[in-house]
Amino acid sequence: PMNNSTDVAQDEVTMTRVLHVIGEFSRVEGIARSITELVDRCPGEHHLLTAVFISGEEHFASIHVVGGTRSAFPIFRRRRVKRIVKQLNPDVVHFHGGPLVSLLIPLRVWNGPKKVASIYCWPLLPQLALVRKISWRSTFLARHVQPRIVVTTIIPSRVFESLLRLGGITTVLTPDPAVVSNLPRTNTKLVGVAGASPDKRRARLNPEHPTIVFAGRAEAIRGIDTLLDAVPLVMKRVPNLSVRLLLLASRESNAMRASIQARGLTDTVFVTTEPSVDLQDDFASASVAVFPFLFDHVTLPPALTVSEALAVGLPVVGTDVVCITAILRDGVNGRVVPVGDVNALADAITAIISAEDTWRKLSDGAIRTIATTDSWDSVAIAAVAAYGISGTLSMQTKTEMEGPPA
């Protein structure tokens, strides 16, 4: 049940109590999705403390919404937070966010519980050359220059590490290798986060009429123009190609349509701006997914759309940025190409959709990635070890989820 007050049941509970702390919680967002998949698998009693709550109450024993600033609500709601923590008396406090979450951990409101942090990425300001390439306007419209990103870029990482140590953090879990490298003296565990679960639907290659699909916001930083530049090069070798852009509307939507028209691709590139009813079904009807992002950390690693494509066995072509390579492995479940390299992108797409053996190898690798290497279960296993608790994880059997081979 949701609890907007500080009243907490005082019943005796023998299982481990875990309090998850996050600035905003909506089960459809990346971090919240990771949390819900974790708590559904991890033994114990899970509670949520947040400034803003939108959806997902069925996953928690109690939810405590205290309001305030999303990034720093425990600082400005200190008394209320302290009262909730005292009444809940958790065994573990699990903080979720970026490097700035380290500012909250030394506060004297958490008292004695064991503390664990999940730092999902280490965002940095984009390289100036790339910003100039797509314009400052597009960069700001995509909110890629924000105070929190400026702070993590300017402040030395050892400051964040000192705060984590001062706050008594025992373990940091992360899907981002940059977090590991920035916290060398911290017990940091690199955890593969799937972002999706195996799906019984399967993508299939249509060699006669292959389809490229892109799904995401209509933003220049996602490299849509790079894809549009690559399409004519692919069509020289694969003439019956079609491209589907499943775009979430933004202030740049009209510019994207103008780019398609200016390139003379209106008969090849089809744009949808309505939110997908079933994105994995859209992926299952395509031949390859392409995500030519220009910046690191366009989204949290791994990009959920990449994971959802892999979950139906769809090979992916992506660029060498953290939110893509957190789950995409070159030659295993897709291809990784340099940022902004139109020729490399076209070659990678062509190589996949022109050779059935290559396509099937990558498709099988995509399923294995989601089912084993980077499964949600692996996240739960890492969390259980960090919490220091015992119990049986609530895992769905992989054979049931995978279904028969395509």
Please state the average pLDDT score: 85
SSE-based structural type: alpha/beta
According to DSSP, the number of beta strands is: 14
Q: What is the molecular shape?
A: elongated
**Helix residue percentage:** 25-40%
**Terminal Cα separation, in Å?**
42 Å
Strand content: 15-25%
Q: How is the main sheet built?
A: 8 strands, parallel
Radius of gyration: 22 Å
Treating each run of at least 4 consecutive H or I residues as one helix, how many helices? 17
Q: Stretches where pLDDT falls below 50 for ≥5 residues?
A: 4-14, 396-406
In the sheet with the most strands, the strands line up as 1-4-3-2-5-6-7-8
Distinctive features:
17 helices; disordered C terminus; single chain; 6-stranded parallel sheet; 406 residues
Task: Give a verbal description of the structure.
The protein has 17 helices and 14 strands. By secondary structure, it is α/β, with parallel strands linked by helices. An eight-stranded parallel beta sheet has the order 1-4-3-2-5-6-7-8, with helices on both faces. A six-stranded parallel beta sheet has the order 11-10-9-12-13-14, sandwiched between helices. Helix 1 packs across helix 16. The radius of gyration is 22 Å and the shape is elongated. The two termini are 42 Å apart.
